[in-house]
Design a protein that fits this description.
Radius of gyration of chain B: 24 Å
Structural class of chain A: alpha/beta
Radius of gyration of chain A: 20 Å
Largest sheet of chain A: 6 strands, mixed
Oligomer: heterodimer
Order of helices and strands of chain A: EEEHEHEHHHEHEHEEHEEEEHH
Strand order of the largest sheet of chain B: 1-4-2-3
Largest sheet of chain B: 4 strands, antiparallel
Number of helices of chain A: 10
Number of strands of chain B: 4
Chain lengths: 294, 310
């Protein structure tokens, strides 16, 4: 059952109608941890903010647990725990004051649960937010979101400014909590290796459109990488991109036994490259394999 | 609204509230103490009868101390009591929402609060209450300073310093606060909002006072010669024509109403609103400012409900 949905969602900004999202249809299954991947400007944050009610879609609609945030933002928010892109803590408040502030803002907030998460990480309750490291601030944001006990967690690139150890700790807490509570999480991130260890589903956005929406296991099973010039067999070309040694690689989907299994990063890269061509097509038609190779 | 919510809300504006709150509290206490001191050194009423030809001998000793106390304490404290509530309203009001948008903390708060109106109320109400209470106390201290400086004046029925004391003064401070909150929410930037609110508050209060004065002018009555006691609100001088009608300068399109010596060719009459109308005028202006404050707060709430977080 889908707990997060979009129906033909589009969002444009400004008079020149730059579309951040266009014709996006997404369903995020209940209980999944989904990675939302895409280049800068692909509409990831816009999509997450639409579910939180921070953005109003120009066309189509978004749904959280059956509720349209544009019609009833308050009810939709009670279903969501949100971790914004940059740590948004009040620098003059202590960690414990953030917990108390959240109690006053969200009636269903579970302070004991949030405090336990903070204790587990050794984050001092008496420290002011400005005294915490970036990783600790992100953890406080996550603890507050988890403490809402909301069925959906939306995380907008919370790992972007964290070092590798802080990222790993953050994901560890996230996965443990989500698995224990049966929560659904949608994690927007650029860091593919982190996604692979934490998420079970992959959603790739590019040019404001959905390029891929699959369980990670299926995404890995369905794609192979073929070096440039080699036969793709019966597989369908998704896109080509340069490899580590600058060799041209082709991402192939479908029943092909040519080449080697693709890594998650290669799956994402191939689809992002493929996503560029249709976005440039004036008549909106899908690009052919020949166009993609070219 | 819990006590903890109020405390945390005030904590977010702690620097501004502590700085201006402490200064204003000190000014209020100082103003009340100065008023009591000035009243204690005030000479008998006969010494302050400026139309008397000779003053009692005791005045020679008491008047210098009385005037010295006024210039030493009343002047500086009255200036502080007038300036600080407006400064506090401005510097507490503008950042209330604007700083949340600037720093991005609104993303956290608005994602947690199912109702932004409730969030807005919790953020605004404690500071509003504080400004109103301190504004009333400052207005009262300014009332007492005037009463001490003018012992013959009943400040509850006198127009001197109208708008800069009593309830009207507190209402003006509250209005500036509400305007500051609303414009801070609309602009989402603290510094531009501070500048704009400062300009609009000065212009708005000035224009509102002029309008109120014009409305009050319709209540002006002639003041009999020698009956002026300083409690009335002077409006203008008029000329009394032979038929008894009172006309203004505008009446004389061709004729010069003054003779060669510069004396008026018709007797002049002073028009003023009687001091007894002070409470009514105070209520009207305070009511208008309260209505303006409510409109500004509702506008701020509407903007908070509609806008994107920073």
């Amino acid at each position: 059952m889908a707990i997060l949905e979009t129906h033909d969602v589009g969002k444009s900004y400004g008079r020149r109608a730059q579309w951040a999202l266009r014709h996006v249809d997404i369903t995020v299954p209940d209980g999944s941890i989904t990675a939302l991947v895409g280049p800068n400007g692909s509409g990831k944050s816009t999509l997450l903010k639409s579910w939180v009610g921070f953005e109003t879609p120009t066309e189509g609609r978004v749904v959280v647990d059956g509720i349209d945030p544009q019609r009833d933002r308050g009810a939709a928010l009670t279903r969501i725990g949100y971790v914004p892109q940059a740590p948004s803590l009040y620098r003059e408040l202590t960690v414990d004051e953030h917990v108390r502030l959240t109690i006053t803002l969200r009636p269903s907030f579970d302070p004991a649960y949030a405090r336990q998460r903070l204790d587990d990480l050794g984050i001092p309750h008496s420290a002011r937010a400005e005294q915490l490291s970036g990783g600790q601030q992100a953890q406080v944001g996550l603890a507050l979101a988890l403490g809402t006990r909301a069925p959906v967690l939306l995380l907008d690139e919370p790992l972007a400014s964290l070092d590798p150890l802080a990222r790993r700790e953050f994901l560890h807490v996230l996965v443990d909590s989500v698995r224990a509570d049966g929560t659904t999480a949608l994690l927007s991130s650029h860091v593919i290796t982190d996604i692979q260890q934490a998420c079970d589903r992959l959603l790739v956005l590019g040019g404001g459109r959905t390029l891929l929406d699959l369980p990670i296991a299926a995404a890995l099973a369905e794609h192979r990488v073929v070096p440039g010039g080699e036969s793709m067999g019966s597989g369908r070309l998704v896109g080509t991109f340069p490899g580590a040694d600058n060799e041209r690689l082709a991402l192939v989907s479908g029943a092909s036994d040519h080449g080697r299994p693709a890594t998650l990063e290669e799956v994402v890269l191939g689809h992002l490259v493929a996503g560029r061509l249709p976005a440039l097509a004036a008549d909106g038609r899908a690009a052919s394999d020949a166009e993609r190779v070219a | 609204m819990t006590l903890d919510a109020v405390r945390l809300s005030l904590r977010l504006s702690r620097f501004e509230i502590l700085t201006f709150g402490l200064l204003l509290t000190a000014a209020i206490i100082g103003g009340l103490a100065a008023a009591a001191y000035i009243a204690s050194v005030a000479p008998p009423a006969a010494c302050l009868d400026y139309q008397a030809e000779a003053l009692p001998p005791v005045c020679d000793q008491m008047l210098p101390a009385f005037f010295a106390a006024q210039s030493r304490f009343a002047g500086p404290l009255a200036s502080a009591l007038v300036a600080l509530p407006f400064a506090m309203a401005l510097f507490v009001g503008v950042p209330l929402v604007a700083r949340e948008l600037e720093r991005g903390t609104s993303r956290l708060a608005w994602s947690l609060a199912p109702s932004r109106w409730r969030w807005y109320l919790v953020r605004v109400a404690p500071a509003l209450l504080l400004i109103a209470v301190l504004g009333l106390l400052a207005g009262h201290a300014l009332d007492r300073l005037l009463a001490a400086a003018e012992p013959a004046l009943d400040v509850s029925a006198a127009f001197p310093n109208f708008g800069y004391r009593g309830v009207v003064f507190a209402s003006r401070a509250v209005f500036v606060f509400c305007l500051a909150v609303a414009l801070g929410a609309i602009l989402g930037r603290t510094l531009p909002a501070l500048i704009l609110v400062g300009i609009l508050a000065v212009a708005g209060i000035g224009a509102g006072s002029d309008l109120h004065r014009q409305l009050l002018a319709s209540e002006a009555v002639p003041v009999p010669e020698g009956a002026w006691d300083g409690s009335d609100l002077y409006i203008e001088d008029r000329f009394e024509l032979p038929d008894g009608s009172l006309v203004t300068w505008d009446y004389f399109s061709q004729e010069n109403p003054y003779d060669d010596q510069g004396d008026p060719i018709y007797p002049t009459v002073m028009m003023a609103v009687p001091g007894e109308r002070y409470r009514f005028a105070e209520t009207v202006q305070a009511g208008a400012l309260a209505a303006g404050s409510v409109v500004a707060l509702l506008l701020g709430g509407y903007v908070v409900g509609r806008r994107r977080p920073g």
